[in-house]
Amino acid sequence: MSEELLINISPMESRVAVLDNGILGEIYIERHHKLGLVGNIYLGTVVRVLPGMQAAFVDIGQSRTAFLHVNDMQREPRPVAEDKSKAATNDKKDNSDNSAILETSTDGLAVTPPVVSAQSTEVVPVSKTLIQHRLHESQRILVQVTKDQLGSKGARLTTNISLPSRYLVYLPSSDHIGISQRIDGEEERTRLKTELSSLMQTVNLKGGLIARTAAERVPVNKLEEDIYYLLQLWRTICARRQEINHHQSSELIYQELSLPLRSIRDLVHADTEKVIIDNTQVYEQVRYFAKEFVPFIYDKIVHYTAEQSLFDVHRVEDDLRDALKRRVDLKSGGYLIIDQTEAMTTIDVNTGSFVGGRSLEDTVYKTNLEATHAIARQLRLRNLGGIIILDFIDMLEQQHKDDVLESLQAQLTQDYAKTKITQVSELGLVEMTRKRTRESLGQQLCEPCSTCQGRGFVKTAETVCFEIFREIMRCARTYNSPKKFTVVAHAAVIDLLLTSESDTVADLEYLLGRVITFDVENLYTQEQYDIVLD
Protein backbone atom coordinates (compact mmCIF):
# COMPACT_ATOMS: atom_id res chain seq x y z
CA MET A 1 0.00 0.00 0.00
CA SER A 2 1.41 3.37 -1.05
CA GLU A 3 0.91 6.38 1.17
CA GLU A 4 1.28 10.13 0.70
CA LEU A 5 1.20 13.01 3.18
CA LEU A 6 -0.28 16.33 2.07
CA ILE A 7 0.49 19.33 4.28
CA ASN A 8 -1.66 22.40 3.64
CA ILE A 9 -0.78 25.64 5.45
CA SER A 10 -2.91 28.78 5.59
CA PRO A 11 -2.87 31.85 7.86
CA MET A 12 -5.77 30.34 9.84
CA GLU A 13 -4.89 26.67 10.19
CA SER A 14 -2.59 23.78 9.34
CA ARG A 15 -4.00 20.58 7.82
CA VAL A 16 -2.38 17.23 7.17
CA ALA A 17 -4.07 14.63 4.96
CA VAL A 18 -2.96 11.00 4.76
CA LEU A 19 -3.74 9.37 1.40
CA ASP A 20 -3.84 5.57 1.15
CA ASN A 21 -3.50 4.61 -2.53
CA GLY A 22 -4.80 8.05 -3.46
CA ILE A 23 -7.83 7.90 -1.13
CA LEU A 24 -8.14 10.13 1.94
CA GLY A 25 -7.62 7.95 5.03
CA GLU A 26 -6.99 10.46 7.81
CA ILE A 27 -7.13 14.21 8.31
CA TYR A 28 -5.51 16.29 11.06
CA ILE A 29 -6.50 19.92 11.57
CA GLU A 30 -4.89 22.45 13.89
CA ARG A 31 -6.33 25.96 14.17
CA HIS A 32 -3.58 28.48 14.86
CA HIS A 33 -5.67 30.33 17.46
CA LYS A 34 -6.68 27.08 19.15
CA LEU A 35 -3.73 24.73 19.27
CA GLY A 36 -4.21 21.22 20.66
CA LEU A 37 -2.98 20.57 24.20
CA VAL A 38 -2.18 16.85 24.00
CA GLY A 39 1.46 16.29 24.92
CA ASN A 40 1.96 19.69 26.53
CA ILE A 41 3.55 19.67 29.99
CA TYR A 42 2.37 22.17 32.59
CA LEU A 43 3.25 23.16 36.11
CA GLY A 44 -0.32 23.28 37.40
CA THR A 45 -2.03 24.11 40.68
CA VAL A 46 -4.49 21.76 42.37
CA VAL A 47 -7.80 23.61 42.66
CA ARG A 48 -9.94 20.93 44.23
CA VAL A 49 -9.49 17.35 45.51
CA LEU A 50 -12.50 15.02 45.31
CA PRO A 51 -12.05 11.93 47.53
CA GLY A 52 -15.40 10.53 46.40
CA MET A 53 -14.19 10.40 42.78
CA GLN A 54 -10.53 9.79 43.65
CA ALA A 55 -9.70 12.68 41.35
CA ALA A 56 -8.57 16.29 41.40
CA PHE A 57 -9.13 19.37 39.28
CA VAL A 58 -5.95 21.18 38.26
CA ASP A 59 -5.56 24.72 36.90
CA ILE A 60 -3.26 24.66 33.86
CA GLY A 61 -4.20 28.09 32.55
CA GLN A 62 -7.06 27.01 30.27
CA SER A 63 -10.71 28.10 30.27
CA ARG A 64 -11.66 24.90 32.13
CA THR A 65 -9.80 23.21 34.94
CA ALA A 66 -8.24 19.90 33.87
CA PHE A 67 -9.07 16.49 35.36
CA LEU A 68 -6.53 14.22 37.07
CA HIS A 69 -7.58 10.75 38.27
CA VAL A 70 -5.59 8.82 40.85
CA ASN A 71 -4.97 6.02 38.31
CA ASP A 72 -3.16 8.56 36.11
CA MET A 73 -0.69 9.48 38.85
CA GLN A 74 2.77 7.99 39.01
CA ARG A 75 3.48 5.42 41.64
CA GLU A 76 4.53 6.57 45.08
CA PRO A 77 8.21 5.89 45.88
CA ARG A 78 9.40 4.70 49.30
CA PRO A 79 12.82 3.65 50.68
CA VAL A 80 14.05 0.20 49.65
CA ALA A 81 15.11 -0.53 53.23
CA GLU A 82 11.45 -1.00 54.17
CA ASP A 83 10.48 -4.68 54.34
CA LYS A 84 12.76 -6.29 51.78
CA SER A 85 10.76 -9.46 51.32
CA LYS A 86 7.48 -7.60 50.75
CA ALA A 87 9.25 -5.19 48.42
CA ALA A 88 10.45 -8.04 46.24
CA THR A 89 6.93 -9.41 45.95
CA ASN A 90 5.42 -6.02 45.13
CA ASP A 91 8.17 -5.25 42.63
CA LYS A 92 7.50 -8.44 40.72
CA LYS A 93 3.78 -7.74 40.64
CA ASP A 94 4.24 -4.11 39.59
CA ASN A 95 6.62 -5.04 36.78
CA SER A 96 4.00 -7.43 35.47
CA ASP A 97 1.40 -4.64 35.55
CA ASN A 98 3.76 -2.23 33.84
CA SER A 99 4.50 -4.78 31.15
CA ALA A 100 0.84 -5.00 30.22
CA ILE A 101 0.62 -1.24 29.95
CA LEU A 102 3.86 -0.45 28.20
CA GLU A 103 3.58 -3.12 25.52
CA THR A 104 0.92 -0.93 23.92
CA SER A 105 1.95 0.98 20.80
CA THR A 106 2.09 4.73 21.21
CA ASP A 107 2.08 5.51 17.51
CA GLY A 108 -0.17 8.32 16.31
CA LEU A 109 0.13 12.04 16.96
CA ALA A 110 1.26 11.66 20.56
CA VAL A 111 3.64 13.24 23.11
CA THR A 112 5.94 12.66 26.26
CA PRO A 113 9.53 12.91 28.58
CA PRO A 114 12.29 11.04 30.89
CA VAL A 115 13.78 11.45 34.36
CA VAL A 116 17.21 10.80 35.76
CA SER A 117 17.06 9.54 39.35
CA ALA A 118 20.06 8.97 41.57
CA GLN A 119 18.26 7.03 44.32
CA SER A 120 17.06 3.47 44.16
CA THR A 121 13.39 3.18 45.06
CA GLU A 122 10.63 0.65 45.01
CA VAL A 123 7.04 1.51 44.16
CA VAL A 124 3.69 1.07 45.83
CA PRO A 125 0.61 0.52 43.60
CA VAL A 126 -1.48 3.67 43.24
CA SER A 127 -4.57 1.71 44.27
CA LYS A 128 -3.13 1.51 47.81
CA THR A 129 -2.76 5.29 48.12
CA LEU A 130 -5.79 7.61 48.28
CA ILE A 131 -5.62 10.84 46.34
CA GLN A 132 -6.48 12.97 49.39
CA HIS A 133 -3.27 11.69 51.00
CA ARG A 134 -1.21 12.62 47.95
CA LEU A 135 -2.61 15.98 46.86
CA HIS A 136 -3.99 19.06 48.57
CA GLU A 137 -5.45 22.33 47.34
CA SER A 138 -2.92 24.93 46.10
CA GLN A 139 -0.28 22.23 45.62
CA ARG A 140 1.83 22.64 42.47
CA ILE A 141 2.40 19.54 40.35
CA LEU A 142 3.98 18.71 37.01
CA VAL A 143 1.36 17.24 34.67
CA GLN A 144 0.96 16.32 31.02
CA VAL A 145 -2.19 16.51 28.88
CA THR A 146 -3.36 13.15 27.52
CA LYS A 147 -6.75 14.25 26.15
CA ASP A 148 -7.86 17.59 24.75
CA GLN A 149 -10.96 19.37 26.02
CA LEU A 150 -13.99 17.54 24.60
CA GLY A 151 -17.20 19.56 24.65
CA SER A 152 -17.92 20.64 28.22
CA LYS A 153 -15.22 18.39 29.68
CA GLY A 154 -11.82 19.77 30.60
CA ALA A 155 -8.53 18.26 29.47
CA ARG A 156 -7.41 14.91 30.94
CA LEU A 157 -4.06 14.89 32.76
CA THR A 158 -1.42 12.47 33.95
CA THR A 159 1.66 12.83 36.14
CA ASN A 160 3.30 9.96 34.25
CA ILE A 161 5.31 12.21 31.94
CA SER A 162 6.32 10.70 28.59
CA LEU A 163 8.33 12.15 25.72
CA PRO A 164 8.22 10.65 22.22
CA SER A 165 10.92 10.77 19.60
CA ARG A 166 11.01 9.11 16.21
CA TYR A 167 11.77 5.61 17.50
CA LEU A 168 11.29 5.73 21.26
CA VAL A 169 9.12 7.05 24.08
CA TYR A 170 10.88 7.95 27.32
CA LEU A 171 8.97 7.39 30.59
CA PRO A 172 10.68 8.88 33.65
CA SER A 173 8.38 7.30 36.23
CA SER A 174 8.79 3.73 34.94
CA ASP A 175 11.59 1.22 35.01
CA HIS A 176 10.37 -1.02 32.21
CA ILE A 177 11.40 -1.46 28.57
CA GLY A 178 8.36 -2.05 26.37
CA ILE A 179 8.00 -2.93 22.69
CA SER A 180 5.16 -1.84 20.38
CA GLN A 181 2.61 -4.58 19.79
CA ARG A 182 2.84 -3.90 16.07
CA ILE A 183 6.37 -5.37 16.06
CA ASP A 184 5.57 -9.08 15.70
CA GLY A 185 8.89 -10.90 15.31
CA GLU A 186 10.09 -12.36 18.60
CA GLU A 187 13.73 -12.10 17.49
CA GLU A 188 13.35 -8.38 16.71
CA ARG A 189 11.56 -7.73 20.01
CA THR A 190 14.35 -9.45 21.91
CA ARG A 191 17.00 -7.48 20.00
CA LEU A 192 15.35 -4.16 20.81
CA LYS A 193 14.98 -4.98 24.49
CA THR A 194 18.61 -6.06 24.74
CA GLU A 195 20.02 -3.06 22.89
CA LEU A 196 17.86 -0.53 24.73
CA SER A 197 18.81 -2.03 28.08
CA SER A 198 22.48 -1.83 27.16
CA LEU A 199 22.18 1.77 25.93
CA MET A 200 20.41 2.86 29.12
CA GLN A 201 23.23 1.45 31.21
CA THR A 202 25.82 3.11 28.98
CA VAL A 203 24.35 6.61 29.35
CA ASN A 204 23.24 5.93 32.97
CA LEU A 205 19.63 6.68 32.04
CA LYS A 206 17.05 5.98 34.74
CA GLY A 207 13.44 5.53 33.73
CA GLY A 208 11.59 3.49 31.14
CA LEU A 209 11.54 3.27 27.35
CA ILE A 210 9.04 2.10 24.77
CA ALA A 211 10.23 1.13 21.30
CA ARG A 212 7.73 2.48 18.78
CA THR A 213 6.72 0.65 15.61
CA ALA A 214 9.18 2.77 13.61
CA ALA A 215 12.05 1.26 15.67
CA GLU A 216 11.73 -2.10 13.91
CA ARG A 217 15.06 -3.07 12.29
CA VAL A 218 16.55 0.33 13.18
CA PRO A 219 20.35 0.16 13.86
CA VAL A 220 21.61 0.72 17.39
CA ASN A 221 23.30 4.04 16.56
CA LYS A 222 19.92 5.56 15.60
CA LEU A 223 18.40 4.35 18.86
CA GLU A 224 21.32 5.87 20.75
CA GLU A 225 20.76 9.23 19.03
CA ASP A 226 17.11 9.13 20.08
CA ILE A 227 18.03 8.42 23.68
CA TYR A 228 20.45 11.36 23.83
CA TYR A 229 17.82 13.62 22.23
CA LEU A 230 15.21 12.61 24.82
CA LEU A 231 17.66 12.97 27.68
CA GLN A 232 18.57 16.50 26.61
CA LEU A 233 14.88 17.38 26.16
CA TRP A 234 14.07 16.19 29.67
CA ARG A 235 16.97 18.13 31.16
CA THR A 236 15.65 21.24 29.41
CA ILE A 237 12.20 20.63 30.89
CA CYS A 238 13.66 20.17 34.37
CA ALA A 239 15.66 23.39 34.03
CA ARG A 240 12.55 25.24 32.88
CA ARG A 241 10.68 23.87 35.88
CA GLN A 242 13.26 25.35 38.26
CA GLU A 243 12.99 28.79 36.62
CA ILE A 244 9.23 29.11 37.10
CA ASN A 245 7.96 31.96 39.27
CA HIS A 246 6.28 30.37 42.29
CA HIS A 247 3.65 33.13 42.38
CA GLN A 248 2.12 31.98 39.10
CA SER A 249 -0.79 29.51 39.36
CA SER A 250 0.15 27.67 36.18
CA GLU A 251 2.83 27.69 33.53
CA LEU A 252 3.48 25.90 30.24
CA ILE A 253 6.75 24.00 30.66
CA TYR A 254 6.92 22.17 27.33
CA GLN A 255 4.85 22.57 24.18
CA GLU A 256 4.42 19.74 21.71
CA LEU A 257 5.72 20.12 18.16
CA SER A 258 3.60 21.85 15.53
CA LEU A 259 1.29 19.67 13.43
CA PRO A 260 3.56 19.50 10.32
CA LEU A 261 6.61 18.40 12.35
CA ARG A 262 4.51 16.05 14.47
CA SER A 263 3.17 14.38 11.34
CA ILE A 264 6.71 13.78 10.07
CA ARG A 265 7.71 12.27 13.41
CA ASP A 266 4.63 10.10 13.92
CA LEU A 267 3.01 9.36 10.55
CA VAL A 268 5.88 8.79 8.15
CA HIS A 269 7.01 5.19 7.64
CA ALA A 270 8.55 2.90 5.04
CA ASP A 271 5.41 2.91 2.83
CA THR A 272 5.33 6.72 2.63
CA GLU A 273 6.20 7.60 -0.96
CA LYS A 274 5.92 11.37 -0.83
CA VAL A 275 5.35 14.34 1.48
CA ILE A 276 3.89 17.34 -0.38
CA ILE A 277 3.91 20.79 1.28
CA ASP A 278 2.36 23.97 -0.16
CA ASN A 279 4.13 26.52 2.06
CA THR A 280 7.76 27.58 1.54
CA GLN A 281 8.57 28.33 5.18
CA VAL A 282 7.05 25.10 6.49
CA TYR A 283 8.72 23.19 3.65
CA GLU A 284 12.14 24.38 4.85
CA GLN A 285 11.30 23.62 8.50
CA VAL A 286 10.15 20.10 7.65
CA ARG A 287 13.23 19.39 5.53
CA TYR A 288 15.53 20.51 8.34
CA PHE A 289 13.59 18.40 10.88
CA ALA A 290 13.55 15.37 8.58
CA LYS A 291 17.29 15.63 7.90
CA GLU A 292 17.97 15.48 11.63
CA PHE A 293 15.43 12.89 12.77
CA VAL A 294 13.86 11.10 9.76
CA PRO A 295 16.55 11.14 7.06
CA PHE A 296 15.02 8.42 4.86
CA ILE A 297 12.10 10.73 3.99
CA TYR A 298 14.27 13.78 3.23
CA ASP A 299 14.45 13.22 -0.54
CA LYS A 300 10.72 12.49 -0.72
CA ILE A 301 9.67 15.92 0.56
CA VAL A 302 8.22 17.99 -2.29
CA HIS A 303 7.34 21.69 -2.42
CA TYR A 304 3.99 22.25 -4.16
CA THR A 305 3.91 25.57 -6.05
CA ALA A 306 0.98 25.27 -8.50
CA GLU A 307 -1.86 27.79 -8.37
CA GLN A 308 -4.63 25.26 -7.77
CA SER A 309 -5.11 24.29 -4.13
CA LEU A 310 -3.18 21.18 -3.07
CA PHE A 311 -6.25 19.69 -1.40
CA ASP A 312 -8.43 20.39 -4.45
CA VAL A 313 -6.03 18.55 -6.75
CA HIS A 314 -6.28 15.41 -4.62
CA ARG A 315 -10.04 15.77 -3.91
CA VAL A 316 -9.44 16.14 -0.20
CA GLU A 317 -11.93 19.01 0.12
CA ASP A 318 -14.67 16.87 -1.45
CA ASP A 319 -13.89 13.95 0.87
CA LEU A 320 -13.94 16.31 3.86
CA ARG A 321 -17.43 17.53 2.95
CA ASP A 322 -18.62 13.93 2.55
CA ALA A 323 -17.11 13.02 5.93
CA LEU A 324 -19.54 15.40 7.65
CA LYS A 325 -22.62 13.70 6.16
CA ARG A 326 -24.70 11.05 7.94
CA ARG A 327 -24.91 8.83 4.89
CA VAL A 328 -21.94 7.07 3.30
CA ASP A 329 -22.68 5.36 -0.01
CA LEU A 330 -21.04 2.03 -0.89
CA LYS A 331 -20.00 1.13 -4.43
CA SER A 332 -22.45 -1.77 -4.57
CA GLY A 333 -25.45 0.47 -3.89
CA GLY A 334 -25.63 -0.13 -0.15
CA TYR A 335 -24.95 2.60 2.37
CA LEU A 336 -24.04 3.42 5.99
CA ILE A 337 -25.84 5.77 8.35
CA ILE A 338 -23.51 7.23 11.00
CA ASP A 339 -24.95 8.98 14.05
CA GLN A 340 -22.71 10.45 16.75
CA THR A 341 -24.24 11.13 20.17
CA GLU A 342 -22.91 12.11 23.58
CA ALA A 343 -22.85 8.50 24.81
CA MET A 344 -21.85 6.55 21.71
CA THR A 345 -21.64 6.40 17.92
CA THR A 346 -23.93 4.10 15.94
CA ILE A 347 -23.28 2.87 12.39
CA ASP A 348 -26.16 1.20 10.55
CA VAL A 349 -25.51 -0.92 7.44
CA ASN A 350 -28.19 -1.05 4.73
CA THR A 351 -28.41 -2.88 1.37
CA GLY A 352 -29.96 0.15 -0.35
CA SER A 353 -30.26 -0.45 -4.10
CA PHE A 354 -27.96 -3.51 -4.07
CA VAL A 355 -30.08 -6.56 -5.04
CA GLY A 356 -27.28 -9.13 -5.33
CA GLY A 357 -27.58 -12.23 -7.43
CA ARG A 358 -27.93 -15.73 -5.98
CA SER A 359 -29.80 -15.31 -2.70
CA LEU A 360 -30.75 -12.86 0.05
CA GLU A 361 -28.11 -14.31 2.38
CA ASP A 362 -25.44 -13.81 -0.26
CA THR A 363 -26.57 -10.21 -0.84
CA VAL A 364 -26.44 -9.45 2.88
CA TYR A 365 -23.05 -11.14 3.27
CA LYS A 366 -21.46 -9.14 0.41
CA THR A 367 -22.94 -5.87 1.68
CA ASN A 368 -21.61 -6.46 5.20
CA LEU A 369 -18.15 -7.37 3.89
CA GLU A 370 -18.00 -4.20 1.82
CA ALA A 371 -19.25 -2.22 4.82
CA THR A 372 -16.29 -3.34 6.98
CA HIS A 373 -13.88 -1.54 4.64
CA ALA A 374 -15.99 1.65 4.69
CA ILE A 375 -16.48 1.52 8.47
CA ALA A 376 -12.74 1.21 9.19
CA ARG A 377 -12.02 4.14 6.87
CA GLN A 378 -14.75 6.32 8.36
CA LEU A 379 -13.58 5.66 11.92
CA ARG A 380 -10.11 6.95 11.04
CA LEU A 381 -11.29 9.78 8.80
CA ARG A 382 -13.91 11.11 11.23
CA ASN A 383 -11.77 10.20 14.28
CA LEU A 384 -14.73 8.57 16.00
CA GLY A 385 -13.93 7.34 19.50
CA GLY A 386 -15.49 5.92 22.63
CA ILE A 387 -18.23 3.28 22.37
CA ILE A 388 -19.23 2.41 18.80
CA ILE A 389 -22.18 0.15 17.90
CA LEU A 390 -22.12 -1.46 14.44
CA ASP A 391 -25.51 -2.66 13.22
CA PHE A 392 -24.72 -5.11 10.44
CA ILE A 393 -27.54 -6.66 8.42
CA ASP A 394 -28.65 -9.93 10.03
CA MET A 395 -26.82 -13.00 8.71
CA LEU A 396 -27.95 -16.59 9.21
CA GLU A 397 -24.74 -18.51 8.60
CA GLN A 398 -22.12 -18.47 11.37
CA GLN A 399 -19.29 -18.64 8.80
CA HIS A 400 -20.53 -15.39 7.27
CA LYS A 401 -20.56 -13.72 10.69
CA ASP A 402 -17.01 -14.89 11.35
CA ASP A 403 -15.82 -13.66 7.95
CA VAL A 404 -17.32 -10.21 8.48
CA LEU A 405 -15.75 -9.89 11.93
CA GLU A 406 -12.38 -11.08 10.61
CA SER A 407 -12.55 -8.58 7.74
CA LEU A 408 -13.32 -5.74 10.17
CA GLN A 409 -10.40 -6.68 12.41
CA ALA A 410 -8.07 -6.86 9.41
CA GLN A 411 -9.10 -3.39 8.25
CA LEU A 412 -8.59 -1.92 11.73
CA THR A 413 -4.95 -3.05 11.84
CA GLN A 414 -4.12 0.12 9.87
CA ASP A 415 -5.66 2.29 12.59
CA TYR A 416 -3.23 4.13 14.88
CA ALA A 417 -5.84 4.31 17.66
CA LYS A 418 -6.30 1.33 19.94
CA THR A 419 -9.52 -0.61 19.23
CA LYS A 420 -11.35 -3.49 20.89
CA ILE A 421 -14.11 -5.52 19.19
CA THR A 422 -16.70 -7.94 20.57
CA GLN A 423 -18.31 -10.87 18.74
CA VAL A 424 -21.41 -10.48 16.55
CA SER A 425 -24.46 -10.64 18.83
CA GLU A 426 -27.72 -12.48 18.11
CA LEU A 427 -29.16 -9.19 16.87
CA GLY A 428 -26.32 -8.70 14.41
CA LEU A 429 -24.69 -5.96 16.51
CA VAL A 430 -20.96 -5.56 17.05
CA GLU A 431 -19.82 -3.50 20.02
CA MET A 432 -16.39 -1.92 19.84
CA THR A 433 -14.34 0.81 21.46
CA ARG A 434 -11.78 3.12 19.92
CA LYS A 435 -9.40 5.23 21.98
CA ARG A 436 -10.30 8.91 21.89
CA THR A 437 -7.66 11.59 22.58
CA ARG A 438 -9.03 14.53 20.61
CA GLU A 439 -12.28 15.84 19.19
CA SER A 440 -13.88 14.03 16.28
CA LEU A 441 -13.92 15.72 12.87
CA GLY A 442 -17.55 16.72 13.33
CA GLN A 443 -16.93 18.21 16.76
CA GLN A 444 -13.91 20.09 15.47
CA LEU A 445 -15.52 21.59 12.36
CA CYS A 446 -19.19 21.89 13.36
CA GLU A 447 -21.44 23.16 16.11
CA PRO A 448 -25.01 22.23 17.15
CA CYS A 449 -27.68 23.55 14.80
CA SER A 450 -29.09 26.86 16.09
CA THR A 451 -32.53 25.92 14.72
CA CYS A 452 -33.01 22.44 16.16
CA GLN A 453 -30.39 22.70 18.95
CA GLY A 454 -28.68 19.53 17.75
CA ARG A 455 -31.80 17.31 17.68
CA GLY A 456 -31.64 16.88 13.91
CA PHE A 457 -35.32 17.75 13.37
CA VAL A 458 -37.87 20.55 14.02
CA LYS A 459 -41.59 20.60 14.73
CA THR A 460 -43.77 20.53 11.63
CA ALA A 461 -45.60 23.69 10.59
CA GLU A 462 -48.89 21.94 11.43
CA THR A 463 -47.72 21.19 14.98
CA VAL A 464 -46.75 24.84 15.48
CA CYS A 465 -50.15 25.98 14.15
CA PHE A 466 -51.94 23.86 16.76
CA GLU A 467 -49.68 25.27 19.48
CA ILE A 468 -50.62 28.78 18.34
CA PHE A 469 -54.34 27.97 18.54
CA ARG A 470 -53.94 26.66 22.09
CA GLU A 471 -51.90 29.70 23.11
CA ILE A 472 -54.54 32.10 21.69
CA MET A 473 -57.26 30.35 23.68
CA ARG A 474 -55.11 30.50 26.81
CA CYS A 475 -54.52 34.24 26.33
CA ALA A 476 -58.24 34.84 25.73
CA ARG A 477 -59.13 33.19 29.05
CA THR A 478 -56.41 35.06 30.93
CA TYR A 479 -56.80 38.54 29.42
CA ASN A 480 -60.29 39.97 28.77
CA SER A 481 -59.25 43.34 27.32
CA PRO A 482 -57.54 42.41 23.98
CA LYS A 483 -59.70 43.14 20.94
CA LYS A 484 -57.29 41.58 18.47
CA PHE A 485 -54.57 38.93 18.39
CA THR A 486 -51.59 39.27 16.05
CA VAL A 487 -49.61 36.11 15.33
CA VAL A 488 -45.95 36.67 14.39
CA ALA A 489 -44.32 33.53 12.99
CA HIS A 490 -42.21 31.91 10.27
CA ALA A 491 -43.46 32.16 6.67
CA ALA A 492 -44.22 28.42 6.41
CA VAL A 493 -46.42 28.58 9.51
CA ILE A 494 -48.28 31.70 8.36
CA ASP A 495 -48.89 30.14 4.92
CA LEU A 496 -50.46 27.09 6.56
CA LEU A 497 -52.65 29.26 8.83
CA LEU A 498 -53.95 31.19 5.81
CA THR A 499 -54.60 28.11 3.67
CA SER A 500 -55.18 24.65 5.16
CA GLU A 501 -56.03 25.99 8.64
CA SER A 502 -58.07 29.04 7.52
CA ASP A 503 -61.35 27.38 8.56
CA THR A 504 -59.96 26.69 12.04
CA VAL A 505 -58.86 30.34 12.30
CA ALA A 506 -62.37 31.51 11.32
CA ASP A 507 -64.00 29.21 13.89
CA LEU A 508 -61.61 30.47 16.57
CA GLU A 509 -62.40 34.13 15.75
CA TYR A 510 -66.14 33.38 16.01
CA LEU A 511 -65.72 31.49 19.28
CA LEU A 512 -63.60 34.19 20.95
CA GLY A 513 -65.28 37.18 19.34
CA ARG A 514 -61.93 38.68 18.44
CA VAL A 515 -59.99 39.30 15.21
CA ILE A 516 -56.83 37.31 14.50
CA THR A 517 -54.22 38.81 12.13
CA PHE A 518 -50.87 37.47 10.92
CA ASP A 519 -47.36 38.88 10.34
CA VAL A 520 -44.42 37.05 8.75
CA GLU A 521 -41.04 37.30 10.51
CA ASN A 522 -38.30 35.85 8.29
CA LEU A 523 -35.75 35.85 11.11
CA TYR A 524 -37.82 33.38 13.13
CA THR A 525 -37.22 29.64 12.92
CA GLN A 526 -40.16 27.38 12.11
CA GLU A 527 -40.73 26.68 15.82
CA GLN A 528 -40.67 30.32 16.93
CA TYR A 529 -43.78 32.48 17.21
CA ASP A 530 -45.19 35.35 19.24
CA ILE A 531 -48.79 36.40 19.94
CA VAL A 532 -49.24 40.15 20.29
CA LEU A 533 -52.28 41.37 22.27
CA ASP A 534 -53.84 44.56 20.84
Automatic annotation (TrEMBL):
Its main location: cytoplasm. Gene3D superfamilies: Nucleic acid-binding proteins (2.40.50.140), Ribonuclease E, catalytic domain (3.40.1260.20). The keyword Metal-binding applies. It comes from the Bacteria. Residues 37-160 form the S1 motif domain. Residues 74-100 are annotated as: Disordered. It is found in: Cytoplasm. Residues 74-96 have a biased composition (Basic and acidic residues). Pfam families: RNase_E_G, RNase_E_G_Thio. Its cofactor is Mg(2+). Keywords: Cytoplasm, Endonuclease, Hydrolase, Magnesium, Metal-binding, Nuclease, RNA-binding, rRNA processing, rRNA-binding, tRNA processing, tRNA-binding. The keyword tRNA-binding applies. PANTHER family: RIBONUCLEASE, RIBONUCLEASE G. Belongs to the RNase E/G family. RNase G subfamily. This is Ribonuclease G. The lineage of its organism: Bacteria, Pseudomonadati, Pseudomonadota, Gammaproteobacteria, Moraxellales.
